[in-house]
Structure to design on (310 residues):
């Protein structure tokens, strides 16, 4: 190799390394150049799909507090939005510049990627330029939906979440908490539970700040907890005895069917609680520069509101 070729290769390597580094530094010269001409918040209304749900409701509240136009995407909305009825999508997307996309029952379930892809392409065709997707940590099926959204041509951000704190006071764990027994097929698995308020803050940042375009944030709480430890925290906060009882997947599947909930949740528990997510991630700090809320603080604040009083 000649000295000239060696010098060129060295310079190319330095340039490549420099580009790779600046891609991960918010507010760098790279980001300002890449995002020149993009608006912090796209013109038009923000459609919040699942706008009455755990994270969606909080995103709606935050956007309205900023004086930004918001449309709640739900079956009871005006116009209505229903994932299972694509005829409702077009009216919900009229005049929309950005969309927060949440999917029920879960992105890992069959058919989700097809729905996400079709909705994303329609949103872009209708004029939306920014899409923010709530995804799940460690879910291979969810990655298919992420890729479908990314291929729409819109500016995108993906927020991959752990289990919510709010599953215990707004979701399908609330009745077991009230009954004093968490019977789940989770064994000794640990999870880095995250607060829906933290997720909402990250989502709003992504909807209103160009520095988050093209980023995938994995978000979790500040510590790992087993479900037995969760029961202990809930007992401490409520002053009641709340127990964790490990059950088999088949037993849990039967319980889901009895309550009219998708039995696929049993398979999802087995998948995402197999140890793949048994570590902390730092997307909250990366996106908004502060620590996430601890489960003990959530439990204490929620108990003080009387949600778990019996």
């Amino acid at each position: 190799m000649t000295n000239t070729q060696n010098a060129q290769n060295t310079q190319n390597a330095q340039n490549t390394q420099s580009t790779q580094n600046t891609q991960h530094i918010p507010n760098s010269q790279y980001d300002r150049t890449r995002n020149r001409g993009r608006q912090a918040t796209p013109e038009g209304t923000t459609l919040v799909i699942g706008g009455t749900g755990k994270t969606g409701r909080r995103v709606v509240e935050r956007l309205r507090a900023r004086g930004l136009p918001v449309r709640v995407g739900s079956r009871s909305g005006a116009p209505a939005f229903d994932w299972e009825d694509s005829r409702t999508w077009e009216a919900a997307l009229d005049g929309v510049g950005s969309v927060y996309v949440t999917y029920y029952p879960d992105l890992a379930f069959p058919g989700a990627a097809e729905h996400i892809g079709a909705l994303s392409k329609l949103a872009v065709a209708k004029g939306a330029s920014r899409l923010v997707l709530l995804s799940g940590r460690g879910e291979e099926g969810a990655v298919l939906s992420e890729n479908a959204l990314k291929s729409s041509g819109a500016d995108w951000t993906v927020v991959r979440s752990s289990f919510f704190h709010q599953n215990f006071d707004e979701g399908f764990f609330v009745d077991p908490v009230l009954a004093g027994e968490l019977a789940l097929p989770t064994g000794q698995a640990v999870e880095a539970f995250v607060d829906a308020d933290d997720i909402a803050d990250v989502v709003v940042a992504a909807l209103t700040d160009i520095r988050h375009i093209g980023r995938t944030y994995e978000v979790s709480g500040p510590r790992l907890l087993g479900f037995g430890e969760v029961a202990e925290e809930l007992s401490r906060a409520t002053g009641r005895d709340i127990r964790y009882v490990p059950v088999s997947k088949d037993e849990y599947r039967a319980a889901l069917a009895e309550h009219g909930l998708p039995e696929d949740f049993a398979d999802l528990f087995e998948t995402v609680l197999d140890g793949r997510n048994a570590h902390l991630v730092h997307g909250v700090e990366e996106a908004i520069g502060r620590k996430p809320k601890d489960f003990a603080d959530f439990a204490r604040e929620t108990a003080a509101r009387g949600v778990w009083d019996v």
Remarks:
- The radius of gyration is 21 Å.
- The chain is about 45% helix and 15% strand.
- Confidence is low (pLDDT under 50) at residues 1-34.
